[in-house]
Amino acid sequence: MTISIRKTYKFEAAHYLPGHNGKCSNLHGHSYVLEVELTGTLVSRTDASDFLMVTDFHDLDSIVKPLIETRLDHKDLNETLKEFIPRTTAEGMVIFIAAHIKALLPEHLSLTEVVVWETATSRAIWRGQVCDTWHNHTQPVSTLPETESNG
Ligand SMILES: [Zn+2]
Q1: Catalytic residues
Q2: N or C: which end of the chain has fewer CB within 10 A?
Q3: Which superfamily is assigned to 2-147 in CATH?
Q4: 21 CA to middle of ligand 1, Å?
Q5: 107-130 pLDDT, tens digit each
């Protein structure tokens, strides 16, 4: 049986949109909310630690929390994300975050939705779209300190 699980994360960050014709071109901050949805088959082995789970929520934390710590929370997003996305819109961020999670997710789990809430009423939603414009997106993600295999 296939089930989806979803977890919510929060972080505070500063950013601005250079060249934008509006007040978002000024440096400002948001209390971001991030939702991540995984879909997978329920573990059916009754002797398994994660019996009747898609995966332990902690396993999702172990992917998302290091990203939040190193690149997002209390950061200047225009600095910490400049090598990944050309503009720190909610749309750009949701593409970046989805690419990062997908790159680290075990094969038996699917990333089915990522939502970045920029304000209490405004959000961008990723549902499996691949970004053709920035093919190199998934490459630099592996250079995050927490994911380096050489320590
Ligand atoms: Zn903003």
Answers
A1: 24, 74, 118
A2: C
A3: 6-pyruvoyl tetrahydropterin synthase/QueD (3.30.479.10)
A4: 13
A5: 999 999 999 999 999 999 999 877
